[in-house]
Amino acid sequence: MPAKILDGAKIASDIRKEVAAEVASLAAAGMRPGLAVILVGHNPASEIYVRGKVKACQEVGIYSEQHTPAETATTDELLAMVEDLNRRDEIDGILVQLPLPPHVDSKKVLMAVDPAKDVDGFHPVNVGFLSTQRPGLVPCTPAGVIEILNRSDISIAGKEAVVVGRSDIVGKPVAMLMLNANATVTVCHSKTHDLPAVCRRADILVAAIGRAGMITGDFVKPGATVIDVGMNKVTDAAVFQRLFGGRLYKNAKREEIFRTKGSTLVGDVHPEVAEVAGALTPVPGGVGPLTIAMLMYNTVKAAKLRRGSGQWSAASGQ
Ligand code: NAP
Hints:
By secondary structure, this protein is α/β, with parallel strands linked by helices.
């Protein structure tokens, strides 16, 4: 039986509606959440991402502002901008869109963001809070993975979870969230021996690798849940053929997109996995839409933690 497709777009839309209701009640109490985005220079991909984030803010009622310093902005100028946003009470979230130009010390700029406003959840203080299970801001994509599981009634406690990928922004936080939810967690990477055998142990398999269709059917235990975080732009006809050439996986819509645009977005999981897994997130329309929804959620959470009744101090995590 083909896998149940987990509809990330629907789940993200539900979360955005919940966030909008929360924003409305906070705004009525005089505490409208606010997000500031810093976008340096003119990176076309970054401009598209930022547009999506600002539009999402408008839709859920979050105040947003964009700061667009020139490509030539120095580390010190960006630090001054971050400091100013740190000081402003009506700004709850600060997002520095990456990548920054090569002459800028990116780590220094990211470290300067007040952890209480770090809606990306990348600051070491928030990483520490996550690993010690204290209230803090959790990276958006990993938090989205957990939302998909929870809202699809896929229990995590006691399950074997295997995460392929150990990046600071996806693999490690997903693994920590799974551990906090009482899964037995294995984290794999490029040096893992016999990756298919390790993956086949998984009740829940998370692929966060960045390699189109690498996870094939022989990596998956029959009936397992497979979460595909990968977002890969395929432009090579041979790769397209490997993924969608088989009679079973022919996909007329994909073929049309590939023919007209010359590319298509695919995950790390091969389409044949749908014949083995019990449940599967598609790409596009799976984990992707959750990232912005969780950014909206984090901005509201940051407002409540910092400005709400139980004032949250990043230093104490209380
Ligand atoms: P990354 O920093 O490049 O990390 C990739 C990880 O995969 C590394 O840990 C690497 O191992 C591991 N890896 C690479 N090749 C491997 C192989 N052959 N076997 C086993 N492990 C292998 O990537 P990332 O930032 O975590 O992103 C991963 C994917 O998620 C990308 O496709 C990205 O576009 C996507 N993503 C999606 C969203 C979303 O909103 N849906 C958000 C963020 C990222 P080593 O550590 O040993 O090098």
